[in-house]
Amino acid sequence: MLSAKNVRLSDPLKQPRPWAGAFFTCTLLLLMIGVFAASLQAQNKNPLAGDPRAAKLGEFEFRANCAFCHGLGARGGGRGPDLTRAKKRHGSTDPDLFRTINEGVPGTAMPPNGATQQGVGMTEEEIWQVISYIRSVEKKGEAAAIGNVAHGKELFNGPAGCSTCHMIQGKGGRIGPDLSTTGSTRSTGYIVESLRSPSRRLAQGISEAMKEFSQEYETVTVVTADGTKFMGVVLNEDHFTLQMIDTREQLHLFEKDRLRSFEKSRESLMPAYDQKMLSDKDLQDVIAYLLSVGAQ
Amino acid sequence: MKSTFMKTGMQLAMALLSLGGLASNARAQVTPQRLLDSGKEPQNWLMYSGDYAGHRFSALDQINASNAAMLVPKWAYQTMAGGKFETTPLVVDGILYATGQDDRAFALDARSGRPIWQYQRALAADIRPCCGRVNRGMAILGDKVFLGTLDAHIIALDAKTGSVVWDATAVDYRNGYSITLAPLVIKNLVLIGVSGGEYGIRGFIDAYDAATGARKWRFYTIPGPGEAGHETWEGDSWKIGGAPAWITGTYDPATNTTFWTTGNPSPSNRGEGRAGDNLYSNSLLALDPDTGKLKWYFQFSKHDEHDYDATQVPVMIDQGDQHLIVQANRNGFFYLIDRTNGKIVFASPFAKVTWSDSKDASGAPVARKDASPTPEGNRVCPGAAGATNWMSPTYDPQTRLFYVTAREQCDVFSTAPQPYEAGHAFYGSAYFPNDDAEPFTGALRAIDPHTGKLKWEWKHLSPTWSGVLSTAGGLVFTGDAEGNFMALEAASGKALWHFQCGASVYSSPMSFAIDGKQYVAVAAGSALFAFSLP
C-alpha cells in the first residue's frame, strides 16, 4: 500500500451528506495534492491494467464504496452515473479516473477519497483496482453510433415534443428535468425506460448540482381555498408546505392546510412514448442526440 | 503602613472569597445525589436522557397543548461547523452545556444563548469516525463536565472556564476507535463506550474516576479466551469482532445496575469467518457500575449480517411488580425485557421486517436463513440504517406511551470480501438503496409498551434522524429531515406547532426552565435553537 492509511467513511446511510464540510476537504485536498503530486504525475497509466485479479478486488472495493450511488455492476444508480459507458463526463483516461475518484467532483455528490470523513479513504492501489474493475465492465461500442443525432435533435425540438417540458443547454421547458447531462450520466437502458414508461421510476435530480433534497418530479394537483385548480410537478415539499411549478410554468408556494385539496401522484406528467408516438428508430435518434449533448 | 495595606488586602480577599462562596451556593454543584433525584429539579437537564431511566421526559408543563401554537424562537447559537449536529445539551442552574461537530464544547447563558466559554479539541487528520465528526453531548458532576472525543479520549473540562482538568486516553484511535456518545456519570464514576464497529475494533465500556481520570474498570463487549461467550466467535475473529457501545446507557439505583447496549459485529455485513452468535454484539448488557461485572445479557440480533446495532437507549419502565426495559430495536422489533434477569417478555415488529419470520421458544425473533447478503444482492427490511437508530425515544409516564422514530427503508445487501487491516474500514459488504419505485418514509410512532400495539403515528415525508422529547404539558417534540421542529399532542399525535430550522434535525430535543420560564431546545444544521412562549 502506497499511502498512509486514510480514514474511510464510506457509510452513506450513516453519513447522508457527504458534501458537508467541503471547505475542510478542499483545504486538505490542497495539502494532499502537494504531497501526492509527484506520485500521481508519475502514474499516467494504471499499473494494474489488464490484471484480472486486480479487477476482481476492484469489484469488491467498488461494491463497498461506489455502488451505493453508481449501482451494482456500475450501471448507474439513484444519483451516480452509468460507468460502463466508455466516455466519462469528467475524463476517460486512467489519470482522469484516478483524479475523479481521489479528488471527487466539486458541485456534485461525488466526494473526494480523502483522509477526512467525506471520502472513502481507499489507498492508491485500491483506486487502481477500482479502475481495473471499471475497465472490465466498460462497453466497447457506444449506442451513440447507432442513431442519427441531427434527426434526434429535430424530433426533440419538434414532433416528439420533448423540449416543451425539458431544457437542454438553456433552451426548452421547465416542467421536467434538465437533460443537458443525461446522456453522459444515465445508461441507455435507463433513458429508454424513462421514455417508454416514465412512471416506473420517477426522475431524480441527478443532472443538477447536488441539492439537500431530492426532487422526483411527482405530479401534484391542488385546489386552493377559492376553488382554483393547479396541476404540475413538486419542486419541494415538507410536511406543512408545498413548492410547485404548474403546467404553465408558474411557481406556486402553498401551506398545505390552507388548500381545499392536495393530491400527489407517482403517475408522471410525461406521456409514455409507445411505438406509435416514437418508433424504435426515432427513439435511437433521440438517444443519440442526448448522448451527443452529454458528450459536449 | 505596609501591614495596614496587607490587612486591607486580606479583608478584600476574604470579602471576594465570601462573595464567591455566595455565588457558588447559588449555583450548587451537581452531586451524585442530585443526579439520582433529577426528577426533583425539572428546570434542569442533568444528563443525556434527562434522567437515569432514559425517559427523555420533562416534568415541565408551562408549554402545553393549549398554548404550544404560540411558541417562538428565543435564541440560536451557531457552532459555524458543517456536518451533523447531534448534541443534547445539559442545563444546570441557568447554564447550558453542549457539544458540537469536530469535538466542540461550549457553555451558554441559557436565557440568552450567549457563550460563557468555548472549547475545541485539536483533532489529528487521521481520526476514524465512521459516520461524521459528531458528538452527542456531555455529562456533569461537581465542577466538571465530561466529554468523549473522536480520537478516543475522555476529558474533563472545568464547568466554569472550559479548561481541560484531565485528559485520559481510552484507546489508540489509529486502530479504528472513536467516542461520540455522551458519558454517563454514576456515583463518582464517568462511564463511556466506544464507536468503531466499521473498523474491526474490540468494543468496550469504561469507567473513569471523575476526580482524577484514572480508569477504574473496563468491560470488553467481546469475551476473551477463557471467558463465557468466547466460544461464540470463530478462531481469532473475537479480536476484531466490533461490538462497539456508542449510545449512553441507563441506571437503576434500586439494584445498582447500569444498562448498556452494543452495536454490530465486524465485519458488519458479512458473517463468514465469524461463525457463532458473536456475543455480546447487538446486545443489552446489565453491569455492576462499581466493578464493570456483567450481571446478565440479552442479544437482540445473533450473528448479525445487516448492521442492526442495538445502540438505542435502553429505557426503564415499571408496571406493578414488573421492572422492565423497553427497546425499539434497529432490527425492526419492539422488545420488552425483564430488567431483573434479561428475559424477554415479548417482541413485536414496529416497522416493516423481512429478516425474521419466526421466533424461538423464548419469543425472540430468529433470522431467516435466506436473509443473508449475497454476491448479487439480497433485499432485506429494515435496511442498513435500521427501523430506528441512535436517536432517542421517549417514555411519557402521563400517557404511559413510548414514542419512537421509525424509518421505513429496505436495502439491497451484497457481499464484498475484504481482509482485515488495522485502522482500515472493515465492512466485508456493501449495501445500497433498493430499486423500489416508492420513496422511503418515516413516522413518529406512539406505542403502548405493555402490548407493543401502535396507538398513533405521525407520518414523516422521509425518514428522519431526530429523537423525541415528551413533556408534562401533554406534548411530544420531534424534528424531521425537511428541517421542521414540531410539537405534537402526546395523546393523539395532532400537530400543534412547527418551526422551520433550515436543516435536517439530527439530534434529540430537551427542555429546561429559567426563572419560571420553560424552554425547549434542539440542534439542527449548525445551530442550537431555544424556543419558549412569547
What does this molecule look like?
The complex is a heterodimer of chains A (296) and B (534). Chain A has nine helices and seven strands. In chain A, the strands form two sheets. A five-stranded antiparallel beta sheet of chain A has the order 6-5-4-3-7, with no helix packed on it. In chain A, strands 1-2 form a two-stranded antiparallel ribbon. In chain A, 34% of the residues lie in helices and 11% in strands. Chain A is of the alpha+beta class and 296 residues long. Chain A has helices at 22-42, 52-65, 67-70, 94-103, 124-137, 149-157, 182-185, 188-196, 280-294; strands at 167-168, 171-172, 219-223, 229-237, 241-246, 251-255, 261-265. Chain A has three domains: 22-137, Orthogonal Bundle (Cytochrome Bc1 Complex, Chain D, domain 2), CATH 1.10.760; 143-208 and 271-294, Orthogonal Bundle (Cytochrome Bc1 Complex, Chain D, domain 2); 219-265, SH3 type barrels. Chain A is globular and about 70 Å long. Chain B has two helices and 38 strands. Chain B is 6% helix and 37% strand. Mean pLDDT of chain B is 93; it is low at 1-7 and 13-25. Chain B has a single domain (47-532), classed as Methanol Dehydrogenase, Chain A, CATH 2.140.10.10. In chain B, the strands form ten sheets. In chain B, strands 1-32-33-34-35 form a five-stranded mixed beta sheet, with no helix packed on it. Chain B has a four-stranded antiparallel beta sheet with strand order 2-38-37-36, with no helix packed on it. In chain B, strands 3-4-5-6 form a four-stranded antiparallel beta sheet, with no helix packed on it. The radius of gyration of chain B is 23 Å and the shape is globular. Chain B has 534 residues and is mainly beta. Chain B starts with a helix and ends with a strand. Chains A and B meet through helix 1, helix 2 and helix 3 of A and strand 28, strand 29 and strand 35 of B.
In brief:
Chain A has 9 helices and 7 strands, in the order H-H-H-H-H-H-E-E-H-H-E-E-E-E-E-H. With 296 residues, chain A is an alpha+beta fold.
